[in-house]
Amino acid sequence: MDRFHILTGGPGSGKSTLIDALEQVGYARSVEAGRGIIQQQVSIGGNALPWINPAAFADLMLTWEMRSYEIAQKTAGPVFFDRGVPDIAGYLQLNDLAIPSYVEKAIELYGYNRRVFIAPPWREIFSQDAERKQDFPEAVCTYEAMVSIYTKYGYQPVEIPQTTVEKRVEFVLSKIGEK
Question: 3-class DSSP state for residue 8?
């Protein structure tokens, strides 16, 4: 799906802020899986949390991302994804877990524009919170894992510049031919 655009990278690099800004100017978007799953699991006392059961957390993220993709198919025009199905393989790799065949099958079935926008680690805006427990070195490792995994699956990572949100929006839209 050429109109499906992924924004990925490490935690705390401005991805969600950028996607929020793209939504504010009229573009469809998905909601980040990781944060939503953590909030849901905490609220029900579940154990599919990255610090308790990373494999179960990955499975829930995969389900969330596939559902987001299916919902996006019902919309017209460009859609921006706050991470995508290949991020699950990156998460598993980052945690030294095997990438199951069903994750690879999902990556094959749920395709996106081959140009993937990746937000590099950005110490000046990085912060931790209740759902984001990773420290900055882990954010750097996550970024590196995403570059590696997206390249492995035939995507072309395009680094998002570290600048104002408005300029980041302009950059992304110019790269997809919208401005």
Answer: strand
The pLDDT assigned to 139 comes to 80
- CA angle, 85 as apex, 100 and 51 as ends, to 5°? 70
Pick the closest to residue 165 from 129, 128, 119 (CA basis). 119
In the block, residue with structure tokens 């991805």: 15
State pTM to two decimals.
Answer: 0.91
Cβ atoms of residues 80 and 22 within 8 Å: yes
Cα 34 from Cα 47, distance rounded (Å): 14
Give the separation between CA 145 and CA 87, rounded to whole angstroms: 9
Distance of CA 28 to the CA centre of its chain: 15
What is the DSSP secondary-structure string of 139-158?
Answer: HHHHHHHHHHHHHHTT-EEE
> pLDDT band for position 10 (50/70/90)?
confident
Q: Which amino acid is at 140?
A: V
